[in-house]
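Homework help board

Subject: predicted structure for assignment chain

Our instructor gave us this sequence and asked us to write out the predicted structure in token form, then describe one feature. I got the tokens but I'm not sure how to describe them. Can anyone check?
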Amino acid sequence: MTARRASGQDLASELGTLIFRSRRRVWNAVASGLGAEEESIFTWQLLLHVVRRGGASQRELAEAVAQHPAGVGRALDDLEGRGLVRRRRDPDDRRKLRVEATSRGEAHYRKIYPQTVRHMDAALDPLTEAERVQLRGLLRKLIEEGT
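My token output:
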């Protein structure tokens, strides 16, 4: 193995570790804030996507939150049981179910959104605004080219 290849592997390994640790930092900060609302970050992410998109299929939600569709289905069962979302047949494709936020779900989202963002902001505090914009661009590039 050449020295160049070894350093490339080291860089890839370090980047992977840093991405995972960064995710954990943000995840833990938000999760601690949501604990007071008895909400999980996973169900929060699902509700966020449903509210912002005006509805989505279970498959679209699984892709958006990078989770297995079966896990998403169980989390949606919880949200539906709490009256925060509903599932309906897609009028364009009756084989699909669309998940939509209820008015109660939208109100819940609006209630916990500000504190969730505060916790995310605190986790990202070491970064300047310019660094955050740069990080967003790099992460979007990584995600978009990986799909």
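Reply (TA_rk): Your tokens look well-formed. For the description, you could write something like this. The mean pLDDT is 89. That's the kind of observation they're looking for.
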